[in-house]
Write a structure and sequence with these properties.
The longest helix has 20 residues, at 137-156. The radius of gyration is 18 Å and the shape is globular. It contains 12 helices and no strands. It has one domain. It has helices at residues 2-15, 23-27, 32-41, 45-58, 63-77, 81-93, 114-128, 137-156, 168-172, 176-194, 199-216, 223-233. The protein is mostly helical and 246 residues long.
Length: 246
């Protein structure tokens, strides 16, 4: 029951970010936010980006435009935040138990390449540029989902064979700088959920915090080593203690 309620409120919360009931009318609107929202409803991320980037040249501190532009970047990257939130809600409903952790988000993510990583990095940076006092509750929730998506997408980048797990050789490609960047995105996701309210945000916060707690519980002298051992423990590499040789 809790999961059903969470998913119901999730759909409502995510609809606040960019939805319209009169798509054709909104496309013809002179309001850039309404135009962009209508384009996003139709899956036309590039058109939404064009409208918003043009509008921001005149109003660089219009945070509604900034938030919508972040949504457009994420949509263009192929990140489905609804699917991400459902995965997190399922984890929360199960008491935080998951055999694959962050790797479970892979199926809800697009292909991890330089283009999608760049778009999600831009989406995350746009959301972080919005002053705290100007953030709506839907914005903080969205920012959290973008950050956790970006974390998982960065990890998926190392899944070279695309089998949903990380082999020894694939884990060895993840250097300390990359691991630190992934953990930074995860930390930002936790910070974002702290500013949100509602059952959906609470479920996401609980799930993300439990993932971070699992990482922190791993052996390793550094956070990067703990992350690699965490990924190893989730069915990544077949050999335990992978970080010892790095």
């Amino acid at each position: 029951m809790r999961l059903l309620l969470t998913l119901g409120s999730l759909c409502f919360a995510l609809s606040l970010s960019a939805c319209s009931n009169n798509i054709l009318g909104w496309v013809d609107s002179k309001d850039p936010a309404e135009q962009a929202a209508a384009y996003l409803d139709q899956g036309q991320a590039d058109d939404a980006i064009d409208v918003l980037e043009s509008a921001l040249q005149d109003e660089p501190s219009n945070w509604t435009y900034v938030s919508l532009l972040a949504s457009a970047k994420a949509q263009k990257a192929g990140v489905d935040t609804t699917s991400i939130a459902i995965r997190l809600a399922e984890r929360s409903a199960s008491g935080g138990e998951s055999s694959s952790g962050l790797l479970a988000l892979f199926t809800a993510l697009p292909e991890a390449n330089l283009a999608t990583l760049k778009l999600m990095s831009e989406a995350v940076d746009l959301m972080s540029s919005i002053p705290t006092g100007s953030l709506l509750n839907a914005d903080t929730f969205k920012s959290s989902l973008f950050n956790v998506s970006y974390s998982a997408l960065q990890i998926r980048f190392y899944d070279a064979d695309g089998n949903g797990t990380l082999s020894v050789d694939e884990l060895l490609q993840m250097d300390d700088k990359a691991a630190t960047g992934i953990l930074s995105s995860l930390a930002n996701a936790i910070l974002a959920t702290a500013g949100a309210s509602g059952e959906t945000s609470a479920a996401s916060a609980e799930a993300i915090a439990s993932i971070r707690a699992e990482i922190d519980s791993q052996p390793g002298a550094t956070d990067a080593e703990k992350l690699r051992n965490y990924l190893n423990s989730k069915g990544g590499a077949a050999t335990a203690g992978i970080v010892s040789g790095m």
